[in-house]
Structure formats: structure tokens, C-alpha cells
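Record 1 of the preview.
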Amino acid sequence: LLAGSLTSFGVLALLPILIDALRYLPLVPRLLALNAGLFFLPSCLLGMVTPLVVKQAITDLGSVGGVVGRLYAISTAGSILGVYLTGFVLVATLGARTVVLLVAVVLLALALFFGRLRQSRTVAVILLVPTLGLAGHTLRSQLWQGPCLVETHYYCIQVTEDDVGLHRPVMELHLDHLIHSYTAIGDPDLLRYDYTQIFAETARYVAQGRPALRALFIGGGGYTVPIHLESKYPLAAIEVIEIDPGVIRG
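->
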């Protein structure tokens, strides 16, 4: 538990370092290396908890089946609950970095109060209080924030400027360090990605028979296609559903 806590803290510290070190790799190898570098060691360490608990809980050979079954049933139920709680509640409420930080603090508390240090609660409290203070300071400071212009509960948002070979300023929207859209201020017809051009051609075909077309976009990104359609078809009804308010403000 203590090692899992320390490596969880390490995830936050290593994230900007690994992002910078791996930025020249192709996308798929970069994502694989980033996930392995951040989560392989914490996952291995936390995977050792259940077998160790099983060993401590077994009192005789006759109880092995019942003990193992109960503990793994509890572990499985906790895993299922954790996936849904994290994905639908905690990340939306607290943000991914805060969730990782809380995991590290909770693991440290469990290690101090239920591990070998439980014989000395005074030592446990002495170690835990500064850690909680550090966690609070981290939440309030820019420590481990990385290169984000804005970090929301869902994305690390960056906006950069490049001419992308067009010899004029083009704004690039990066969500989690991946380019999601290109936007030229004052030029809604700039569609750099093939799929955006396909959307535009589809809309043009539909608008020939129904100028007041309706379009629903799930996910706004840089709003490249909605802005393009709005400029081309003033009668169109265009709606965009975007889960992250930070993207909208950006």
C-alpha cells in the first residue's frame, strides 16, 4: 500500500516529464509508452494487495475456498463500482489529477493505519499530516500542472499558432496533447481534416434539397464544422453537445 501510494504520487510528477520525453514518437507508440511508464508499476504493486490479504486471512486449509471466494468477490465488486464511480462521478466532479492525488493519499492512510506502522499510531499521524498538507498545497498550486493552457476535469487544453503551410496564422486546438482542430480566424472554410471535408460535402448535398438543414454534433472540439455550416447555410439549425465547459470557453 505504501509503495502504491508513493508511485501514485509519482504518476503526477512524471506526467509532464514523460510527455516531453516522448513527444517525438509516433502516436500509438507514444501512448503505449506513456501508459506503461505511468501505470505499469502502480498497477503491479496494487495487484499484490489481494493475494497478501488472502494469505493473512487464511487460518486453516479448510477455509481457503471460502476466504478466497469472498475476498475476490469483494475485490471484483469494488472494481466495478470504482470504474463507474470514477468515470461518471469523480472525474466529472474533481478532475483526473485530483482523483489520482486522492488515491495516493488514501493508500498512504491505509498503509499507515493498517500496515506495520499501525503499532505506532503516533508515527502514522506524524507521517500522514505533512502528506495531507502537501496534497492540499498541490491542489492549490500550479505544481504538476504541466504545459496546459487550461486543465479541465476532462482535458489538458492547449492553443498554439502555426501557419501549417498556408502562410497565414492558423490556431491549433490540442486536447490531451493531440491536435483536434485547425481554425483560421475569419476563414470558416478552412477544413484541414478529411473527415471535416466529408461532413461539409454531405451537408452541401443535403442543403440542395433542404436549405434549412438540421445538424447535431456530439462533441464540439474547435467547432470547425459547425462554424463552417453556419456561415454557408444561414437557415440551418445547428446544435452542439459538448461535455466540457472549458472547451466552450476556449
